[in-house]
């Protein structure tokens, strides 16, 4: 039976040395998630706002059909990104007071990760459109590919590398060797 305290094994594996109840840990993780969402949502809102304005520019009518298709895909990705990154707030609001905070944090974290993957796709798509319009050649694809690779490394590879390195550099008590 859960007495509200985390057992030894769970404490060492989940949060190394913190003596938190399940609810305290959920509150802390929710606060951290909100800070992350604020950063991501701001970027998405600015990008999405610019995307929405593009269609009303006189030059939009002169774009090639391929570029218009890329634009539509980019706007749809931006919309899906905004929905995924705003979703955790709605999820929390609807479940507040139902004693489901730990579950809420887990699902909100999953939505946030999905939102970040969608943001990656949105940024790549927007960059592709901009580079195609600006350069009119295959260099655009190489530049977008390079930036996509760099973003992927910064957003996903470095954190996974740090996780792997961190877990390999710790002994059974959770201290660095």
What does this protein look like?
The protein is mainly α and 177 residues long. It contains five helices and no strands. It has helices spanning 8-15, 22-54, 65-95, 101-135, 139-168. Helix 2 runs parallel beside helix 4. It is flat, with a radius of gyration of 21 Å. It starts with 7 loop residues before the first helix and ends in a 9-residue tail after the last helix. The relative contact order is 0.10. The model is unreliable at 1-9 (pLDDT under 50).
Please give a handful of descriptors for the protein shown.
mainly alpha, single chain, 177 residues
The low-confidence parts are: 1-9
User: Main sheet, how many strands, which sense, barrel?
Assistant: none
Count, helices: 5
How confident is the prediction overall: mean pLDDT?
85
Question: How far apart lie the N and C ends?
Answer: 34 Å
Question: From the alpha-carbon coordinates, what is the Rg to the nearest angstrom?
Answer: 21 Å
Give the CA-based shape.
Answer: flat
Helix and strand succession?
Answer: HHHHH
Describe, in short, the structure shown.
With 177 residues, this protein is mainly α. It is 77% helix and 0% strand.
Would you spell out the secondary-structure blueprint of this structure?
Blueprint: H1 8-15, H2 22-54, H3 65-95, H4 101-135, H5 139-168
Helix pairs in contact: 2-3, 2-4, 3-4, 4-5
């Amino acid at each position: 039976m859960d007495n509200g305290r985390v057992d030894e094994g769970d404490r060492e594996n989940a949060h190394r040395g913190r003596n938190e109840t399940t609810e305290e840990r959920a509150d802390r993780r929710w606060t951290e998630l909100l800070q992350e969402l604020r950063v991501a949502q701001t970027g998405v809102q600015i990008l999405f706002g610019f995307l929405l304005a593009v269609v009303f520019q006189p030059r939009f009518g002169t774009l090639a059909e391929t570029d218009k298709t890329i634009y539509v895909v980019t706007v749809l990705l931006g919309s899906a990104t905004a929905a995924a990154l705003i979703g955790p707030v709605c999820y929390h609001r609807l479940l507040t007071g139902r004693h489901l905070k730990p579950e809420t944090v887990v699902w909100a974290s999953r939505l946030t990760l999905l939102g970040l993957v969608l943001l990656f796709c949105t940024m790549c798509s927007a960059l592709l459109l901009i580079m195609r319009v600006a350069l009119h050649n295959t260099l655009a694809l190489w530049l977008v590919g390079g930036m996509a690779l760099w973003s992927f490394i910064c957003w996903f590879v470095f954190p996974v590398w740090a996780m792997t390195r961190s877990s390999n550099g710790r002994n059974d008590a959770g201290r660095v060797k």
